[in-house]
Specification:
The chain has two domains: about 300 residues, PAS domain (Beta-Lactamase, 2-Layer Sandwich); about 190 residues, Alpha-Beta Plaits (2-Layer Sandwich), CATH 3.30.70. Helices cover about 45% and strands about 25% of the residues. GO terms for molecular function: adenylate cyclase activity.
């Protein structure tokens, strides 16, 4: 290759381009940054609102759970006879003790079977008696069907005794199977609305709580309540006491039916139970985002908590984004023009290099191009290195192909990767499964056909058998005439080597029964044993071969020979049977005495679908 002078450093080129295009880069980065800032602003507000709603829901749930636990405890004490609602003194003291320092409870008491109510007000520390509201008395009687220990939450209801809209927790009390009354705890609606942080001075967010399209909490609610005092409406009608969503001059609530649900990053978990939901609303005065969360802790009316964002939250970011877009478009046009001029010259070597490396990645070595030199020093060095690498890889691939014809691929690759030129592989001991395969009657067949055809038949058979063995993780250590010795887990990790060996034997049986080899039918027998063996190189320093040694190897060959006596195609040792994942595929063939052994051992044969067991 001809050396060229006047090469430039790629670092110098990049630095020069940076200084030329730095102003353009800053402008483009500003545009992208503002776009991201707009999305981040929206997502931050949504995430912050989700956290507030989750905290509010947790507080409301905790309030209900505390009431429920108190109800269940009282019901249990009454059922056990440790507390008697008919003993007014003990009963009143117990109620007072239950809600001491419990500011959540507006009132606690008992609706007796005759419809009277006796209770305690923790705020004023006074007892309250009177006739229970007819609706509550009806509900209390209906709860009798729930039986002992069932506490129910009801949302919401007007209570004449405390003159407030309350949420109640009720449970029936039973003693010796007799209905003693219904314990009820009340929490004012105002206590629940305080769980949602409502700060009228917080710009941009409007919180609200709805029940059945009526407003429980909203910054405009106090003004509405002043103009709609309870004494001027039917206090028995809960929805007459609460304003509707179209009565507070809130355009977002008024157009609730037009909310459009959307996902954001991170996605709103509205598919989860009681999860938050993000919605949008497009009105004439701007774009609103609404975050809501259901509170479904009772069989009564569900409560919907939420907040919506005023369009002013996003207007400033939107205006900055539009201005940045105009600037960014202009900058982008200039940057593209300059980038085309610069890249036209400097990208050609990179394109050639990229095309050559893609061809190299596909393993196409014979047609790899010779990369030309370049004025840029780094590009020129890369071309020289690539050309040298291509030559080395071609030589290495040729050596690997030759090795692969005489050695298992994994062993050949290890020898190539080794820095040791002796070709020695350190011997090691391991547990493995050994498969010995031998053709049936091949000696007789060899006497009746020409030697060249014998080689052709064997090569055709060995080619397909090798693919099956190696496909299941096995390594062929020897071809012994028409026999094959393969091991699983001796060189390379095969976790379920017993399964792999059996699977291979079955596949070989299907192979010889399903195909002919140079127009000849072949049959084979397989012996499989699992045990300890030694794997490594043996031979003279200048002539080595990889093999395996041990009694486990010999036993596999002897099992293969026993097939003839037992009339089977596959025999496996008990050590292999014990490691099978599915032992139902094997059946006991016999207890035999293998040559060299002093005791009999159980051997098993494998059921082969579609193939007779006999040879």
């Amino acid at each position: 290759m001809i050396e060229r002078r006047g090469r430039f450093s790629i670092l110098g080129v990049l630095l020069g381009a940076f200084f030329v295009t730095s102003v353009l880069g800053v402008g483009l980065a500003l545009y992208l940054g503002l776009d991201t800032a707009y999305d981040n602003t929206r997502n931050l507000w949504i995430a912050m609102t989700q956290a507030d709603l989750e905290e509010a829901q947790s507080a409301m749930r905790g309030r209900v759970d505390r009431m429920r636990r108190r109800n269940v405890w009282v019901a249990r004490e009454v059922a056990h006879g440790d507390l008697n609602p008919d003993n007014d003194i003990i009963w009143q003291n117990t109620l007072a003790a239950l809600v001491t320092n419990e500011h959540d409870v507006t009132m606690i008491g008992l609706i007796k079977p005759d419809g009277r109510f006796t209770g305690y007000n923790p705020t004023s520390d006074t007892s309250i008696t009177g006739k229970a509201a007819p609706a509550e008395d009806i509900i209390a009687r209906a709860l009798i069907a729930n039986g002992p220990g069932q506490s129910s939450t009801l949302f919401p209801r007007w209570n004449n005794l405390v003159k407030q809209v309350v949420i109640s927790e009720m449970i029936g009390l039973f003693q010796d199977g007799q209905y003693m009354g219904t314990l009820v705890q009340y929490v004012s609606l105002g206590d629940f609305s305080r769980d949602l942080k409502i700060d009228p001075t917080e710009a941009g967010r409007t919180p609200f709580i709805l029940v059945n399209n009526h407003v429980i909490a909203h910054p405009s609610l106090p003004d509405w309540q002043q103009s709609h005092p309870p004494e001027n409406i039917d206090a028995k009608d809960i929805f007459a006491i609460l304003p509707g969503i179209d009565e507070l001059a809130d355009p977002v609530l008024e157009n609730m039916d037009q909310w459009q649900e959307f996902d954001f990053d991170p996605p709103a978990p509205h598919h989860e139970k009681n999860g938050s939901q993000a919605s949008s609303l497009e009105l004439a005065d701007g774009y609103y985002v609404v975050i809501t969360r259901q509170f479904e802790e009772s069989a009564g009316l569900p409560i919907l908590m939420g907040m919506h964002f005023d369009p002013s939250v996003f207007t400033q970011e939107w205006q900055r984004l539009k201005l940045a877009t105009l600037i960014g478009v202009s900058i982008m046009v200039l940057a593209i023009m300059l980038a085309v001029l610069i890249s036209h010259y400097f990208t050609r070597p990179l394109k050639r290099f990229s095309e050559a490396t893609r061809q190299l990645e596909k393993g196409i070595l014979d047609d790899l191009p010779v990369l030309p030199g370049s004025h840029i020093a780094e590009f020129n060095d890369a071309s020289l290195s690539f050309n040298h690498l291509a030559i080395t890889l071609r030589d290495r691939e040729r050596i690997g192909r030759i090795f692969g014809k005489f050695l298992p691929t994994a062993i050949a690759q290890q020898l190539l990767d080794s820095d040791d030129d002796t070709g020695n592989i350190q011997p090691h001991q391991c547990e493995a499964s050994i498969l010995f395969v031998d053709l049936v009657g091949f000696t007789t067949l060899s006497e009746s056909i020409a030697p060249q055809r014998i080689v052709t038949i064997l090569n055709a058979y060995f080619a397909k058998a090798t693919a099956i063995i190696e496909g299941n993780g096995g390594i062929i250590t020897q071809f012994q005439g028409d026999a094959i010795l393969a091991v699983f887990n001796a060189f390379g990790d095969v976790p379920k080597h017993a399964d792999a060996a059996v699977k291979t034997a079955v596949a070989l049986q299907h192979l010889v029964h399903g195909e002919q080899f140079d127009s000849k039918d072949l049959r084979c027998r397989c012996g499989i044993n699992t045990g300890m063996l030694v794997a490594g190189n043996v031979g003279a320093p200048d002539r080595l071969t990889f093999t395996v040694h041990g009694d486990a190897v010999n036993s596999a060959a002897r099992l293969e020979a026993k097939n003839k006596e037992l009339g089977t195609r596959i025999l496996i040792a008990s050590t292999t049977f014990d490691q099978l994942s599915d032992q139902t595929q094997a059946r006991l063939a016999d207890n035999i005495l293998l040559r060299g052994r002093s005791e009999t051992t159980a051997v098993y044969t494998i059921q082969i679908s579609g193939i007779d067991q006999g040879i």
